[in-house]
Write a structure and sequence with these properties.
This protein has helices at 6-9, 20-23, 36-44, 53-57, 64-72, 76-84, 90-96, 100-104, 116-130, 153-164, 181-184, 194-205, 222-228, 257-268, 293-305, 325-328, 340-343, 414-422, 454-457, 462-481, and strands spanning 16-17, 31-32, 145-149, 168-172, 209-211, 231-234, 240-241, 254-256, 285-289, 309-314, 347-350, 352-359, 365-377, 383-387, 393-396, 399-402, 406-408, 449-451. By secondary structure, the chain is of the alpha/beta class. A hairpin with a 5-residue loop joins strand 12 and strand 13 (365-377).
Length: 488
């Protein structure tokens, strides 16, 4: 694929960022795209490598060498058709996916993988500019009614596929706008929301009906959906955050990361948030606990607020700068990752456990008591954490953001009603029980009720949510009609 000698002729080149001083004063995207000719050259670097391990690395199984080749040959319109054949929303993944495909690229053995994510984003952005992306309205209607609960990437992908199969689809969202965590959980500086709005307009034309401010299990009994619809898809995500039950957790100034991010994103997008509800990092010493993407988003947002300092602590060991490719490739490696937000100004610390939050005397947090830890393999073969004696100290902070991930979907409301009324089963981790393979793929234990995305698999990536939404639509269509033409 691409130019057989392209990887020898062209160096890897990726998108750049605006200078830090320019970008931290706004919430817009700050990526500087490559020119069309530069993208074409990067597409030419895709090798005829025999086994395209990038397919294995990509959860939606994107046909990466195919659209790289089409870009190299300047056939951008065909490239978006191939890209859309596996991915409903490449403008989402082209911005916020961590690109496991690039880790699996054969050229990554030499640390120069094809810039797959950049090419993907360039294809879909050009397709929107050229007007090539249009609604795909079903030629026939089945008369079947499907309800999808949750409008994140899993719910949207599932709804779009089912609408294109001719079903009448209603999407229920508890928030005031469509998009799930894509809308309010991911800062605008990583993905501006017109990308969601364009897809919503497309889906409305394709027949999808959206219902906002409708909290199923609270405002609307889930039994109503079961009786009114032929199939019900649970795509509500995994929103129960992991807490930190240490002394001082109740102090003012200690918040879950998503409470901080959502309220900020609402203001950025023009939604009124009262001052008493808003969480501001302005002039504060911010401590972010958790080293993942959500923690990174807290850093970038805090810097834009005008924080005095930002410190991020992680309980695990510092990952290596470079993985051992002979041991890890083409799998996703544990390695040091520095985000654009980290580059904007942040102190990062590893092997740190938080023991308590300290009161300033007025009910507010003023510091965190932490200790250095080390990880050693125990007799059972599992890694065990040990505190290092004499390493306790305090980190000054007057705003603490807990970004330690999510443990499972919220059980109160919809899931509790399904458990009590229909016997819905959960897995040992508290997610909705359901397989991804076999005749009962994406079926729950309740007849006619399906589950996809984080509500079934646990906290994961946007690209995995899109995959599950598409595959769940395949399963729903098969169950409703006895056959399906939807791709899996």
């Amino acid at each position: 694929m691409g130019k057989p000698t392209g990887f020898l002729e062209y160096d890897r080149r990726d998108r750049r960022y605006q200078p830090v001083a320019d970008r931290v004063v706004h919430y817009r995207e700050f990526v500087i795209p490559l020119s069309a000719e530069q993208v074409r050259e990067q597409g030419a670097r895709c090798m005829d490598c025999g086994i395209p391990f990038c397919h294995q690395g990509c959860p939606v199984n994107n046909l990466i060498p195919e659209w790289n080749d089409l870009v190299y040959r300047d056939d951008w319109k065909r490239a978006i058709e191939v890209l859309h054949s596996t991915n409903n929303f490449p403008e989402f993944t082209g911005r916020i996916c961590p690109a496991p495909c690039e880790e699996a690229c054969t050229l990554n053995l030499d640390d120069t993988p094809v810039t797959i994510k950049t090419i993907e984003c360039a294809i879909v952005d050009r397709a929107w500019e050229e007007g090539w992306i249009r609604p795909q309205v079903a030629q026939r209607r089945t008369g079947k009614q499907v309800a999808v609960v949750g409008s994140g990437p899993a719910g949207l992908a599932c709804a779009q596929q089912l609408a294109r199969a001719g079903h009448n689809v209603d999407v229920y969202e508890k928030a005031d706008r469509i998009g799930g965590l894509l809308r309010y959980g991911i800062p605008d500086f990583k993905m501006e929301k017109q990308h969601i709005d364009r897809r919503i307009a497309q889906m409305r034309t394709e027949g999808v009906q959206f219902h906002t401010l409708t909290h199923v299990g609270v405002d609307l009994p889930v039994s109503r959906l079961q009786s009114d619809y032929d199939a019900l898809v649970l795509a509500g995500g995994s929103e129960h955050p992991r807490d930190l039950p240490v002394p001082g957790r109740e102090l003012d100034g200690v918040h879950f990361a998503m409470d901080f991010l959502v309220r900020n994103s609402k203001r950025v997008q023009g939604v009124h948030v009262p001052d008493e509800d808003f969480i501001s990092a302005q002039d504060k010493h911010v401590l972010v606990i958790g080293g993942g993407d959500t923690g990174s988003d807290c850093i970038g947002t805090s810097i834009r607020h005008g924080a005095r300092s930002v410190t991020q602590v992680e309980i695990m060991d510092r990952p290596p700068e470079k993985p051992n490719k002979g041991l890890t490739w083409p799998e996703w490696p544990q390695r040091m990752r520095t985000s654009s937000s980290h580059e904007e100004g942040c102190e990062r610390m590893w092997n740190i456990a938080t023991k308590a939050f300290i009161d300033d005397g007025n009910g507010r947090v003023k510091a965190a008591r932490v200790v250095t830890v080390q990880w050693e393999k125990g007799a059972d073969g599992r890694m065990q954490m040990q505190e290092v004696p004499g390493t306790e100290r305090e980190i000054r902070c007057d705003l603490v953001l807990l970004a330690m991930g999510f443990v499972h979907p919220v059980h109160e409301g919809m899931l509790a009603q399904l458990q009590e009324g229909s016997g819905l089963e959960l897995d040992p981790r508290g997610n909705v029980q359901g397989s991804t393979e076999g005749e009962k793929a994406y079926h729950t234990s309740v007849d006619g009720v399906f589950a996809a995305g984080d509500i079934r698999r646990g906290q994961s990536l946007v690209v995995w949510a899109i995959r599950e939404g598409r595959q769940c639509a395949h399963a729903v269509d098969q169950w409703l009609m006895g056959h399906t033409d939807l791709p899996r």
